[in-house]
Design a protein that fits this description.
The chain is of the alpha+beta class and 306 residues long. The chain has helices spanning 15-22, 28-36, 109-117, 150-161, 235-242, 291-303, and strands at 2-7, 40-42, 45-46, 58-63, 80-83, 87-92, 141-147, 166-174, 181-185, 189-190, 198-199, 209-217, 221-228, 267-275, 282-286. The protein has 6 helices and 15 strands. The protein starts with a strand and ends with a helix. 32% of the residues are buried.
């Protein structure tokens, strides 16, 4: 049983809505179930679904241990950039989900890593996400860090929390950016209407900072590098869309129609750097751009158009 404790900073909002905005990882329907099951307590007492929070309410959310299915190893080839007794760095392909989720328990990166590493994986994140320190979206490619023991996982999770892990992404965005470099400093939270999306308009957003610089210009498109200072869900996609330059191919935050034949956004986790958990030495890895990305760049360099 995991317990999450919060203090309300405002009044008048239903408990389920308040918690869904505060806890990005939990859906509103799941929170409603927790309320119904008596797992949400305010000032020590279980509350009903229609309870409205008051300023300084002490809220405790008890999350039962999930009944997790067996996640089976699968012999799926991995593009390994580096491996030792503590860490594994892989170059994730487009279309691969990082970890299992309800209705999707196979053909994920975790299934592949379980086969590759056998019993040598951190167990901190449980059966569903063994060894996973951070994640990238299904249609984002590139470098991903996996820990092979709990000690390494704890150290690197702390590095991630302190924003000392280097994460630089390459992307192609719509439009011609006015400046050669810039920073988007805008909080990100759950979209106020579409709960499957993130937004900079959420009143409960958490601070998010993305630094970008132009690598090449192609008229109506710009090739950029983005460096994450924080790591919110869909951060680069949301931030670039918020300044009018959504990522090419992003059907969630960009135009509905894409002039190129793409599977999802042109976003690649290229550079990953961190202090090694055992030696303390700084290590940096460069995941080569996938072929589709290179082909698209060649096409844009030749014509600037689809």
């Amino acid at each position: 049983m995991e317990a999450i404790c919060l203090t309300a900073g405002k009044s008048g909002e239903r408990i389920d809505k308040f918690l869904s905005e505060e806890l990005d990882s939990l859906s509103r329907s799941y929170i409603q179930k927790l309320v119904k099951d008596g797992e949400v307590r305010v000032n020590g007492n279980a509350v009903k679904a229609n309870y409205k929070v008051n300023i300084n309410d002490s809220i405790e959310v008890n999350i039962p241990e999930p009944e997790e299915p067996d996640i089976l190893p699968e012999d799926i080839p991995l593009d390994v950039l580096y491996e030792d007794d503590d860490v594994l760095i892989v170059n994730k392909p487009k279309g691969m989900v990082v970890h299992p989720a309800p209705g999707h328990y196979s053909h994920t990166l975790v299934n592949a890593v379980l086969y590759h590493c056998k019993d040598q994986l951190s167990g901190i994140n449980g059966v569903m996400r063994p060894g996973i320190v951070h994640r990238i979206d299904m249609d984002t490619t590139g470098s991903l860090l996996i820990c092979k023991n709990d000690a390494a996982h704890q150290i690197l999770a702390e590095e991630l929390k302190e924003h000392s892990i280097t994460r630089r992404y390459h992307a192609i965005v719509h439009g011609n950016l006015k400046e050669d470099e810039g920073t988007v400093d805008a909080p990100i939270g759950r979209h106020p209407v579409d709960r499957k999306k993130m937004s900079t308009k959420s009143i409960h957003g958490r601070r998010a900072v993305t630094h970008y610089k132009v690598l090449e210009r192609f008229g109506n498109y710009t090739y950029i590098e983005c460096e994450l200072e924080t790591g919110r869900t869909h951060q680069i996609r949301v931030h670039m869309a918020s300044i009018g330059h959504p990522i090419l191919g992003d059907q969630v935050y960009g135009p509905a129609k894409c002039p190129f034949r793409l599977q999802g956004q042109t976003l690649h986790a290229k550079i990953l750097g961190f202090r090694h958990p055992s030696t303390g030495d700084y290590m940096e890895f460069d995941a080569p751009l996938p072929e589709y990305f290179q082909k698209l760049l060649r096409q844009l360099r030749a014509t600037g158009q689809p």
